[in-house]
Amino acid sequence: MRRVVSLYLPRWSTDRLRRRPGCALPPEQPLVLKGMDGRKRVVTALDKAAADQGLYVGMPLAKAQALVEGLVVHDAEPEADAEALDTLARWALRRFSPVVAADAPNGLVIDITGAAHLNGGEDGVLDRLVEALKAEGVTARAAVADSWGAAHAAARFLPKRTAVMGPARDWLPALPLNALRLTRDVVSGLSLLGFDTIGDLVDQPRAPLIRRFGLDLARRLDQAFGHVPEPIDPIRLPDVTSIERHFAEPIGAPETIARYTGKLTETLCDALEGKSLGARQLDLVFYRTDNRIEAVRVAMARPVRDIKRLTRLLCDQIETVDPGFGIERMRLVATEAEPLIPTQTGSDDAAQTPDISVLVDILSNRIGADRIFCLQPMESDVPERSVARTDVLGAGAGLTWPAHWPRPLRLFRRPETVITLGRLPDYPPKAFIWRGIRHIVTHADGPERIFGEWWKREAETDALRDYFHVEVEDGRRFWLFRTGDGESDDPEQHKWYVHGVFS
Fold first, then answer.
1. Of 30, 375, 382, 463, whose CB has the highest number of CB atoms within 10 Å?
2. Which pLDDT value is given to residue 287?
3. How far is it, in rounded angstroms, from Cα 406 to Cα 388?
4. Is the pLDDT of residue 424 over 70?
5. What is the C-alpha to C-alpha distance for residues 265 and 262, in angstroms, rounded to an integer?
6. How far is the C-alpha of 34 from the C-alpha of 42, rounded, in Å?
7. How many whole angstroms separate alpha carbon 233 and alpha carbon 229?
């Protein structure tokens, strides 16, 4: 199923101006951009501070200046805005998907079909996209849906900052007519006839509407619901290594696609070798006969120029490609490449360090790189801070696990409360109830006293935990701890928790 992201930048023009080097406007200073509407000067863009003062796009500039004292006015720069939007599209292409295009004047459209898993799924794509722009001072909203039109409507007319939408028929009818990307005259004409929402148009006869408002109304309606395809013309990256192949007759069989994938990969690797580069990210783009574009993306943990390895990674993703009525062109692009200089291997194969990057690449391209990690020990006595996720290929240097006290194989993210029975000061409980099940303790070891890290948080100045390694009747072993020093008679001062489970 096709999934398309629409990125909406409501303050793109003013955000870009505020980010310009040398601009020292405070956030609370109202800012508008001016342009010409015939012979009249009007507001063409404004920031949040100006909108909060009651200004709006299309307002006469003289009226805006009369209403807001100290209003900052700059000339609109539509050409510079469009150029900056293309630059943003190229950044998104490298980061999120092979198919990205500018959705002028203030947005992007991104086809993430087959590439969302590389960025933590659809929610991960939206969150990373919006947060990255927020860190640069750009206001953004994003939504993903089954079509460009539906995603465009959700990003601009739903209150959520990010939204992952289901089938358009379930939510699109409730949105206003403006969500269909119709002209102002068409929306005004439909409003005069009593049409307020998209749902009001769905069950209406098409012929009278088309006769009065033109074919664009029906086309936008069908595009939003996914009944008519809306091709995306993706932006291309400059100065990248790419190989393209045209076919005299369209192809569509999986084995044929796989065969030509191998040929393109071989040619691309030869081109990369001539530049002493290795691929870190490859995009395989398929141009169908119906003008629709399908694409797959694979990423590598290290620069790679191995033909068989890259071909396998690409062919593993071919099952996500819908050839439609046939593919007339294929393009393989190394969107990310790094220097790769051949190194001489030693004669003693046994002494060589195993290369697990092949396994890492296969798994990360199947289930997502975020799910492939290694647990690395950290310098901290507090258990939940003594381990952290690190890159698999970069782990293993420096710290080692403590040997004086055993640590559980599974450490809970948050300790879970238990009810203890037959407890004594400085001793583990004789039994405890965890998740509604009673466990009788047969063996125990401890306590291991761990103090809080007062230099990190003032609240941990008096924090104290006593950990016990206990074994229950069925042979399972738990890691329990008690808060407090165990000397107080107040049960609130010494609660018990289970923090992990041993193998």
1. 30
2. 95
3. 18
4. no
5. 5
6. 6
7. 13
Residue 478 near residue 500, CB atoms below 8 Å: yes
Residue whose token pair is 């004594």 = 424
Q: What are residue 251's DSSP bridge partners?
A: 327
Sign, CA dihedral 485-491-493-495, equals positive
Distances (CA, A) of 173 to 185, 200, 344: 21, 8, 64
The rounded distance, in Å, linking the Cα atoms of 10 and 115 is 26
CA nearest to 495, candidates 483, 487, 486: 483
pTM (whole model) above 0.70? yes
> Residue 401 pLDDT > 70, yes or no?
no
Long-range interactions of 456-461: CB distance < 8 A, separation 24+ = none
Cβ proximity of 389 and 375 under 8 Å: yes
Least confident of 169-183, 304-318, 395-409: 395-409
DSSP 120-180: THHHHHHHHHHHHHHHTT---EEEEESSHHHHHHHHHHSS-SEEE---GGGTGGGSBGGGG
| Alpha-carbon gap, residue 159 to 10, rounded angstroms | 13
